[in-house]
Amino acid sequence: MGKRSRHIESVTEVVPALEDALAGPVEAAIAEHRDRPGALLPILHAVQDALGHVPEGAVAPIAAALNMTRADVHGVVSFYHHYRSAPPGAHLVQVCRAEACQSMGARALEAHARARLGLAAGAHHSADGRFTLEPVYCLGNCALSPAMLLDGQLHGRVTPGRFDALLATCETTEEHAA
Amino acid sequence: MSITVYVPGDAAAVSVGADAVAAAITREAQARGLDVRVVRNGSRGLLWLEPLVEVATPQGRVAYAPVGEGDIAGLFQAGWLEGGAHALRLGDITQHPYFRDQRRVSFARVGVIDPVDVDDYAAHGGWAGLKRALALEPAKVVETVTASGLRGRGGAAFPTGIKWQTVHDAHALQKYIVCNADEGDSGTFSDRMLMEGDPLCLVEGMTIAGLAVGATQGYIYLRSEYPHAWRTLNAAIAQAYAAGWLGADIAGSGRRFDLEVRLGAGAYICGEETSLLESLEGKRGQVRFKPPLPALKGLFGKPTVINNVITFSAVPAILADGAPAYHDYGTGRSRGTLPLQLAGNIAHGGLVEVPFGLTLRQVLYDYGGGSASGRPIRAVQVGGPLGAYLPESLFDTPLDYEAFAKVGGMLGHGGIVVFDDTVDMLEQARYAMEFCAIESCGKCTPCRIGSTRGVEVIDRFATHGAVQEALLRDLCQTMLHGSLCALGGLTPYPVLSALDHFPEDFDRVRQSDAA
Asked: Is the Cβ of A80 closer than 8 Å to some Cβ of chain B?
């Protein structure tokens, strides 16, 4: 065997491992859902619900449990917009970008949100790690557009002013928690 | 005796403060020592008036709207529990001009009942269709659905009875019923409203389908953007199991049907039926080649009925009242009712369930009340992000599948998104291509590459208009005829309709050629 194939061997042996702190929830998700038909999505949902994201290290144990390759599992995680590979900020802002919201100023709202959260063009996380902004395509609140989710709560008719007010509420909650 | 107050738990109502209103009513009632029971019903569909609160008085339900948290003390002061006069009092909401002339079949109970109460459901005509189906031969159930003229409400409008017949006739030990609840089209929310307002109607419709074709397992594939619907569906299914309407012995008949909700993960393509099946099987949601049809080789390779939420929810009424009662509604080959969804820049956005055949103009102005901004309506997109943009000259098109196809449009799921005269149609055409590029599953080249090139070509309109138009039209033809599924195949609709009906928005940049 030449030098090249040894090189590939050493690369494929690097399997991202799961940090101890994250292993519990991943094992629990596998144990709970592995026997269901089509178990992969339910497992990934359970992992993300518990950890806020699907860590790279979760791929190997999930693949082993479902008798799939790591490539298959990675392919699924990366295919779906819902799954994140890194933890989100303390607060998650999801602004709708679809047509009904566009007709009521969603583009301006998203621009306002970016400026208010201090996000650089193309960035999803604020520098202080407190906020994550994600686009979504339709929240089913099209008659009361523009719409957004803030930490999973749906809000309708969101003007820039209302956006600021909602953000202020979540800052107050943070202070209470501190 | 306690007085019942209905505060919608529908996500749209909650998005404008219904939870806070419900809490304030409970607080105020306690402070006054009054026995008030708050029921979180679905929405009546007058979404611009949400939160719309109804009080059950001896004279019937009296509506007040829109109710803010700050209005509650005043409403109690005005004696609203007895239907007292108040600036927000609307009276009997079913007599409201928006509601009065609707024909609610699928939405008959939405906004009326407690969505997760099996007895309330039964008291309002629920389970009658299922009981009838249990008394019939499966073939007779399929025949009834065929005779009703029901076509799939997901967009493609395929006759439901024919689909069911195929699965009924297929031989297999296991068959499946799958509900496509991946309502990802902008401007559509009827599935969500039904699942939140009358989930048991969907449960009943799917159970009837199971009995009709010999399937014992059903899945509802729900999009992850609908957390409210997820909670309501699961609560309703648990109640249905507890009351014996689901499980090994449906209503004591000895027949079985199990039902489970599965959550999608934010992929628009999973609204396409074969991608949805792949996703349910735990894979990437990539489109399958057809044939084989899902009716013969569907979920896990077994014969599968796959319909959308509104299609299944029309079934209980068809069984209960008979096929002719449903077939009598509508026009031409579009039979029954269609729940229209008025959205975007519209004064009175909401849900309107009417028989097929009203014109778009009637819906926009008689129901919708014109634009929300007060400016002229310039463009209307019907049928979701893959539907055509229609100019004012086509507003007299009747709402039926064939009439829309004739003007190069698509009625689809009945979503209507309104834009006023500030809209930039080049920007909308660009968005359609961009959306397709983001959401393409990647399996076929015309969709995967064509949509990306489409964005680039539109971006070049600013400098080389006339040449780019020829390129864009050519590209659209390739996508139209060469794509594997409707995503790539229909994206040209919004693009070409923008170009055909609103050339001035493209001309504006084309003029730069001369300069």
From this structure: yes
Nearest CA to B212 out of B121, B338, B105, B303 is that of: B303
Number of C-beta neighbours around residue B248 at 10 A: 11
> With contacts defined as CB-CB under 8 Å, which chain B residues touch A152?
227
| CB < 8 Å to B16, chain A | 144, 155-157
Any A CB within 8 A of B333 CB: no
Asked if B417 and A155 come within 8 Å (Cβ–Cβ), the reply is: no
Provide, as residue numbers in chain A, all residues whose Cβ is less than 8 Å from the Cβ of B438: 137
* Residues of chain B numbered 129-148 and touching chain A (CB < 8 Å): none
Residue of A nearest to B184 (CA): A138
**Is the complex ipTM higher than 0.85?**
yes
Burial class (CB in 10 A: 0-12, 13-18, 19+), B217: buried
At B104 the three-state DSSP class reads coil
In whole angstroms, how far apart are CA B341 and each of A103, A164, B197?
Answer: 15, 29, 15
Answer whether B13 touches A (CB < 8 Å). Answer: no
**Spatial distance between the Cα atoms of B191 and B261, rounded to a whole number of angstroms:** 14
pLDDT in tens, chain B (515 residues): 799 999 999 999 999 999 999 999 999 999 999 999 999 999 999 999 999 999 999 999 999 999 999 999 999 999 999 999 999 999 999 999 999 999 999 999 999 999 999 999 999 999 999 999 999 999 999 999 999 999 988 878 899 999 999 999 999 999 999 999 999 999 999 999 999 999 999 999 999 999 999 999 999 999 999 999 999 999 999 999 999 999 999 999 999 999 999 999 999 999 999 999 999 999 999 999 999 999 999 999 999 999 999 999 999 999 999 999 999 888 788 888 889 999 999 999 999 999 988 999 999 999 999 999 999 999 999 999 999 999 999 999 999 888 999 998 889 899 999 999 999 999 999 999 999 999 999 999 999 999 999 999 999 987 777 789 999 999 999 999 999 999 999 999 999 999 999 999 998 655 544 44
Q: List own/partner pairs for B121-128 with CB under 8 A and 24 or more apart.
A: B121/B198, B121/B200, B121/B201, B125/B320, B126/B200, B126/B201, B126/B204, B126/B316, B127/B204, B127/B245, B127/B251, B127/B316, B128/B316, B128/B319, B128/B320
Nearest CA in chain A to B191: A140
Cβ neighbours around A152 below 10 Å, total? 8
- How far is A75 from chain B, CA to nearest CA, in Å? 7
Q: Which of B501, B502, B62, A109 is nearest to A117 (CA)?
A: A109
Smallest CA–CA distance from A141 into chain B, residue: B12
* B12 interaction partners in chain A (CB closer than 8 Å): 140-141, 143-144, 154, 156
Closest CA to B430 of A109, A97, A95: A97
* Pairing relationship of beta strands B36-39 and B3-6 according to DSSP bridges: parallel
Q: Which of residues 23-52 of B touch A (CB under 8 A)?
A: 47-48, 50
Give every CB contact of residue B456 below 8 A, 6+ residues apart in sequence.
none
CB proximity A143 to B under 8 Å: yes
- Nearest CA distance, A102 vs chain B (angstrom): 8
Burial class (CB in 10 A: 0-12, 13-18, 19+), B141: buried
Q: Establish if A132 touches chain B: CB-CB under 8 angstroms.
A: no
Angle at B387 between CA A114 and CA B470, to 5 degrees: 90
Partner-chain contact A42 B184, CB within 8 Å:
no
A34 at the B interface (CB within 8 A)? no
